Structures are given as C-alpha cells and as structure tokens.
Amino acid sequence: MSGLSKYSNYRVPASSLLESVIAITIIATCLLIAIRLYVQVLNSSPSAVELKMRLAVDKAYIELQETQDWEEGMITQPSFRIAKRILPYGETGVRQVVFTVLKDQDTVQVYNYLIEMDDEQL
C-alpha cells in the first residue's frame, strides 16, 4: 500500500473548458472540410448510367464507321435510346454525326462527331 500512496497525492492539471472547446472546433472544421471534399468527388465522377450511355454511343459510332450505314435511326437500349442523325458539314465530303441520348423523352446528352466520306460514298 505504501507504493499506491505515493501516487495518490499526484494530480494532473486538468484541461480548461476553453481548450476543450477549441479542440472540438478544430476537429469539427477538419471533419467539415473532409465531408465537403468527399461530396465534391462523388458529384464530379460520372455515374454508371452515364458511363453506359457513353459506351453505347461509342459502339454506335464504331459500328457506323465499319458498316458505312448512313441512314438516320434510333438505337434502343434497356434504359435509354440513342437517336442518330447525319448532317452535311460544309462544302466538303465531311459529315456531322449527331448522337442524341434520350431518356423518358428528355434529352440527356448530345455527342457530335465529324466523318470524312469518300467520293463514292457521297
């Protein structure tokens, strides 16, 4: 018991209320900044649906180049549709290909491409 009595009289100076409030304020500010950055990163990254739309448009563009199908049309996907339009672009043999992504009758995204056509394709 003599060993314990030596430590019983030792007192640690307690932190003041002001120091505790300052520490909590600093921690809360850091947490607020971290949450804002996290939300900003989540909002800036494309969703899975947007990535599927972009992939479907890219596939349609590659298929257009391979098959040389210059007819306007509609490509139907499970959750959206892609409207394809071919427009003249200037006096040269260049054509503008416009892919419009539609979801529930609303235009979601428009993708524009330029394709140079050979003389026999005109």
Automatic annotation (TrEMBL):
The chain crosses the membrane at residues 20-39. Keywords: Membrane, Transmembrane, Transmembrane helix. This is Uncharacterized protein. It comes from Aquimarina hainanensis.
